[in-house]
Amino acid sequence: MTAHAAMYQRYVADRRKCDMAGMTRTDLGAAVLFEAHAAKQDDFLQFTSLTPANADAFIAEVVAQIQKSGRGLEWKTYGFDTPSDLVARLQRAGFEPDDEESFMVYTLPKTAPQVSMSDADWRIEQVRDLRGIADIVDLQERTWNRVFPWLYDRLSADFVSGAQQFYCAYAGDAPIGCGYIEYILGSQFPELHGGAVVPEYRGRGIYAALYKARFADAIARGFEFIAVDCTSMSHPILEKIGFQWVCPTRPMRWARAA
Fold it and tell me: Measured between alpha carbons, how far is residue 124 from residues 87, 177, 178, 189, 215 in Å?
């Protein structure tokens, strides 16, 4: 087994047993399904282990369930999923592919990295109130040019519960970047989400500073690893920081009923 495969198997063994905030987990054997409590949020399925002989039947069962519910579904595929043509099978069944991403893992140092902003015209702040959450939702929708009607409710709930810690970059009073870290109960792999910087402030070290702020939080809590799914734009930045590539990952989406 390669080092990449071993790390992925360690991650899967860790995460299969963990619940997600605001979702009900069902281990289907061949995959793990998370059904969202919020009406506006899509369901989520991952960690697929099927064979060429049973894959299409399993996919058809999932499709029948989501058609019955009228909800959307993100089927998260990884490079180690089986069968090897899972993405093509999902497309034939009616799923739409998002852009391919990279699943990466970072081994945290013992000492938190320092974030220097003494000469910068921006600053990193930990979010302390729901106004900061609203800033983050606005940044996410502007970055991806999409509306996420469920995102404010989900992030607000995680802010109140402490399931995620949020950081925002500001230039004066204007939010210019954000990122958050999720602590899944029972997992040894905190996950990074939402890294974004507005185009006019890219290339100034803000993206890296947002990572370092979250590293410091995880180190203070005693964690060894951090996991992330990143875009092709973020991949070289994360490699430079020290993240190790594990495998490609691609979200496959089933749109909810109109």
Answer: 38, 9, 9, 24, 13
Instruction: Classify 222 as helix, strand or coil.
Output: coil
pTM, two decimals, is 0.85
- Separation between Cα atoms, residue 207 and residue 234, nearest integer Å: 9
String of DSSP letters for 88-141: HHHHHHT-EE---EEEEEEE--SSPPP---TT-S-EEEE--SHHHHHHHHHHHH
pLDDT at 258: 61
Instruction: Inform me whether the pLDDT recorded for 117 exceeds 70.
Output: no
- Under DSSP, is residue 230 helix (H, G, I), strand (E, B) or coil? strand
Q: Are 108 and 226 in contact (CB under 8 A)?
A: yes
> Can you tell me the mean pLDDT for 16-25?
90
3-state helix, strand and coil shares in percent for the chain, rounded to the nearest 5: 35, 30, 35
45-100 per-position pLDDT tens digit: 999 999 999 999 999 999 999 999 899 999 999 999 999 999 999 999 999 999 99
User: Which of 39, 13, 36, 15 shows the shortest CA–CA distance to 24?
Assistant: 36
Those residues with Cβ within 8 angstroms of residue 24's Cβ, 6 or more apart along the chain or in another chain: 34, 35, 37
